[in-house]
Amino acid sequence: MSQIQTNRKVYLQDKPRHVAREEFINNVTLTPEIENIRTNKALGRVTALPIFANISTPHYHASAMDGIAVRAENTYEAHEQRPLHLKKDSDFKYVDTGNPIPNEFNAVIIVEELQEIDAETVEIIVPATPWQNIRPVGEDVVCGEMILPQGHTLRPADLGALLAGGVQELPVVKKPKVAILPTGNELRQPGAPLEPGNIIEFNGTVFAGFVEEWGGDPLLSDITVDDPDHIRTAIEKGAEEADVIIINAGSSAGSKDYTYHVINELGEVYTHGIATRPGKPVILGEVKGKPIIGVPGYPVSAYLALEWFLRPLLYHYQGIQEPERETLKVRLGRRVVSNMGAEDFVRMNVGYVNGEFIANPLTRAAGVTMSMVRADGVLVVPPDSLGLEQGEEVEVELYKPVDALKKAVLFTGSHDLTIDIVSSLLRRRDVNRQVISSHVGSLAGLMAIRKGEAHVTGVHLLDPETETYNVPYIEKYLAGQQVVHIPFLKREQGWIVPKGNPLSINKIDDIVEKGGAYVNRQRGAGTRILFDSLLKQHSLTSEQIQGYEREMFSHLSVAAEVKEKENSVGLGVYSAAQTMGLDFIPVADENYDLVMTNSFYESDAGQQLMEVIRSTEFKQQVERLGGYKVVEAIKPNFFNE
Amino acid sequence: MSQIQTNRKVYLQDKPRHVAREEFINNVTLTPEIENIRTNKALGRVTALPIFANISTPHYHASAMDGIAVRAENTYEAHEQRPLHLKKDSDFKYVDTGNPIPNEFNAVIIVEELQEIDAETVEIIVPATPWQNIRPVGEDVVCGEMILPQGHTLRPADLGALLAGGVQELPVVKKPKVAILPTGNELRQPGAPLEPGNIIEFNGTVFAGFVEEWGGDPLLSDITVDDPDHIRTAIEKGAEEADVIIINAGSSAGSKDYTYHVINELGEVYTHGIATRPGKPVILGEVKGKPIIGVPGYPVSAYLALEWFLRPLLYHYQGIQEPERETLKVRLGRRVVSNMGAEDFVRMNVGYVNGEFIANPLTRAAGVTMSMVRADGVLVVPPDSLGLEQGEEVEVELYKPVDALKKAVLFTGSHDLTIDIVSSLLRRRDVNRQVISSHVGSLAGLMAIRKGEAHVTGVHLLDPETETYNVPYIEKYLAGQQVVHIPFLKREQGWIVPKGNPLSINKIDDIVEKGGAYVNRQRGAGTRILFDSLLKQHSLTSEQIQGYEREMFSHLSVAAEVKEKENSVGLGVYSAAQTMGLDFIPVADENYDLVMTNSFYESDAGQQLMEVIRSTEFKQQVERLGGYKVVEAIKPNFFNE
């Protein structure tokens, strides 16, 4: 029977993150265990005690070279003018590298310095010095010597030194076990059928990955339903089996958020709510002597919370230093707004354009896992800041090596599926080249080139007056700039409608007349400009179009939206309709072209990109998508050269 | 029957390393295989193809908050002055975070902005905007979108995005299998009994560790004897089972080095010998379509050869970028000599003293695995250089993070086993503190302090005139410098002799009279100064002492050497004798003291160190060693303050 008063109102704290962390690490009980493991299985493990050598290596005086062992004192008279003859066995013995030096000798003369006179005699002309070319006992490791201190993470060469020191088994810190408890009625295991309202349980897999990377041993549980009794049982089981417990989610203060109440009942809550965005509804506590972290359900919030609280805990448990992320000074390409009173964690793209690093914020929605996939780093805006201005220099914590960022190709512009193909082929040609693409639409793409925030953009901008594509826009928006215009693809735009075209949409008037719900694109998108010029041609106004105000940011998003509603219609490319299993009614052929800075065009990366888009393989893959015609012989146009 | 002409003279090439590497990577056949694995098992693996989403997430329009779903258009009149009442079901429905938005609604008002009037009615005072607080279909991942490009190493958050995109299984690059073939009659498996001439086979374990770290799957074979037929069979088996073969050793050009001949017979040799030191006798070739690397037997040479040739091969195979090591500009504490014509790879210690990074070379013997354990980085001296001068600024490739180097405590001076205890306890107190110790003797330790190359030194220097320890030397060698002298330990020095003291050594005269072979320490070592003053006291000369010229660098090395020879005798501390199971005849009690720079003494690290050496735990551990008396109340003496 649940004793929990879930109707009691709980308010979240606004505890500074560092205070919460210090309290947590200092309060919780941590009793690291030691286990003995075989040295050859110990890669990456952490020594629990200092390790001393059991034997010396070499364990005998060993010849360091192929040659003869001699007594140095007997060779002192050797001279180029007075060669010295030595007799086998009495004066010398042959030794190979690694052979023991016979007791009566104390030096080795290498084979290249010998003249063999006969089977029993060699001649030398240079005297030996005592102990030359001999590896004395313990040259490498001396018995009793400390090979490694405690708290050392074992690298391959360490294993060699341990085995050389006769250590076949050693005490290491047992990997801390971390129980991961996904909770929620709406959760379904990956692959299970999904109803509206169901969510795939993927956080657990991500958490397990973090635990592994941070040296722990993850125990991922089945899904627990939103019920205090079930949650209590799961936590109690976790406390028995593991050293640390992670529970996801129900960590906030809503009517169905039981986590706080259960932890409070079973143990102690140190913190409920921290002053960060995202990541606020975090619970830090202890249950039956085991640290427990309640993390929010939104993936990005959860990942950050684990990094802030679980990562230091696991490193602390293992007695090793928490690695620090590389940081980089960058210039802000856009303004970043922030609320007073909370630390903001803004995922950023970082690119290297015209000799400087430019950073732009990614979406800040805490539910968007792709923002973590795409992020090159994170910008931490302190609680006392209202934000940072465009052009300001800020420091970003990096998720990728600087070198990779420096070599990335920044594509910012209209979304087209062929850019993914370019990206793949470029990568195959040169593993260092990665295309980082952001889908902002054609006009914003041109602006990114103008502001030095991108190397390449993709545009399809119809000029209604001249009825030509792209060039009028380049002349207007990039006036005076050295850019290269690459005629790239012809592609079909058309109406994207549900399978079977239930409203029988064939032209723009049908949308108004048949009550279609239109799925629009954002301002500045080429498709939006095309739609607006169709409206004008047909003497329609945007007010007549239901749904005109809402904006989608890509062809695929339009198609995904159309799939949701029987009476909907969008404008977009064939491949997007096909991917979603929708119908497509062609409207116009348009020119989707690339525009790049002259300096990028002339760089290695630019020339590699040109090779890719001229390759047969690229053309074949594009034509397989359908709805495209490639430009057969691509001829760049140079502006303002 | 062997067809191999091992008597044909083979000469090693001197091919530049980069040339050999380019040729090798470009010549060998690499056919990476693809395997499909479960997403939840894919951490750290590399995508073999671009991965596209199978479903959208969310797959329905989901509420982003707890609240009510409404039709935005119906709320436009709400105002603080004119509250609007909404009726349940007709005007709104309650939704929790993650719930689907009913088809008739298009916005969510959060619970905090509602006033519940009765069970059927809520009041609002702010209008909703369309799509507010809704996560539209595909907000995170849109079906058909490329989630990851090929050649991407999977991080925890990537697994989340894949599962969110309905990807439960994905194509990754199969881990390249690397056959590791240890060869040599002298090799014995770790733990097997050792005769003189036997060597523990530990290279294979180290190689396997490297292969794992570089993304491969190591197949470590049993030991193959030095016989062309056996080697041929082992290589043929490796070529069948693995994608790459590593054979160790026999890669040089000696009479028993069969590797070159066998590879030449079975396939092709591209390179035999590169212009590096160490690492010269490397073989690069191909056998039955599989790349093969013959690496030298000396561990350091072998590790470097694998890094130069196997590492790029494995990364190339996987289609990912080879990570670059961090580099650091450092000042050379000592001169580094180098030979023309070969690249020199000098393992270095790097320390941060008085606000700058100072680097000193470690031993350059290629057989010393401990030099790889101790190294903080490597200095590459180009082939056209004769060496680098003390004080020169050079760039070092780092094996450790800069941060760890910055926090390390540099101990340079006389070797004493208690320094290992200090190191362990300091580490336990603060995981960031590591003691990097080099055993150079007392006088060299004082010089290291003088030159700003160390934070702390340990000295036991007898001034024969005043018969006092250490202070006269500090006054002489550190004149004018702000240093702190810490009276630390009294320790016994004595004769270290074989068990049972076969020569009955009791005083220094016995060594001369009974024909003892003396094991001496290096110039500047406190023990050497003690021995020299004993000689003088007893009116003996160094010429009368057999073995006086040869120098050992630590107490343990002296003891290890004594253990080798029935008639030998050394001078050293009790614990060294005990570790090696030798007898110990006390000679003198001496003062082993610490000297540190004033700035280090005042730093956090210095104060932590003082706490450690004053702790009960330290005193207990030291007294357990035997032969020591700790200074009860340590009182620092300040010089030139």
UniProtKB/TrEMBL annotation, chains A, B:
The EC number(s) given in the record are 2.10.1.1
Q: Name one cellular component (GO) term.
A: cytosol
Q: Which InterPro entries match?
A: MoaB/Mog-like_dom_sf, MoaB/Mog_dom, MoCF_biosynth_CS, MoeA-like, MoeA_C_domain_IV, MoeA_C_domain_IV_sf, MoeA_linker/N, MoeA_linker/N_sf
Catalysed reactions, semicolon-separated? adenylyl-molybdopterin + molybdate = Mo-molybdopterin + AMP + H(+)
Please report the stretch or stretches of sequence annotated as the MoaB/Mog domain: 179-316
Say if the entry is tagged with keyword Transferase.
yes
Provide a Gene Ontology MF annotation, just one. metal ion binding
For this UniProt record, the keywords arranged alphabetically read as follows: Magnesium, Metal-binding, Molybdenum, Molybdenum cofactor biosynthesis, Transferase
Q: Look up the record and name the pathway of this protein.
A: Cofactor biosynthesis; molybdopterin biosynthesis
* Domain of life, source organism: Bacteria
Q: GO terms for biological process? A: Mo-molybdopterin cofactor biosynthetic process
Among CDD domains, the record links this protein to: MoeA
Q: Which co-factors does it depend on? A: Mg(2+)
**Record's function text:** May be involved in the biosynthesis of molybdopterin. Catalyzes the insertion of molybdate into adenylated molybdopterin with the concomitant release of AMP.
PANTHER family listed in its UniProt record: MOLYBDOPTERIN BIOSYNTHESIS PROTEIN, MOLYBDOPTERIN MOLYBDENUMTRANSFERASE
The UniProt entry's sequence similarity note says: Belongs to the MoeA family.
NCBIfam families to which the protein is assigned, alphabetical: molyb_syn, PRK14498.1
Query: What protein is this chain from?
Result: Molybdopterin molybdenumtransferase
The organism of origin for this protein:
Anaerobacillus arseniciselenatis
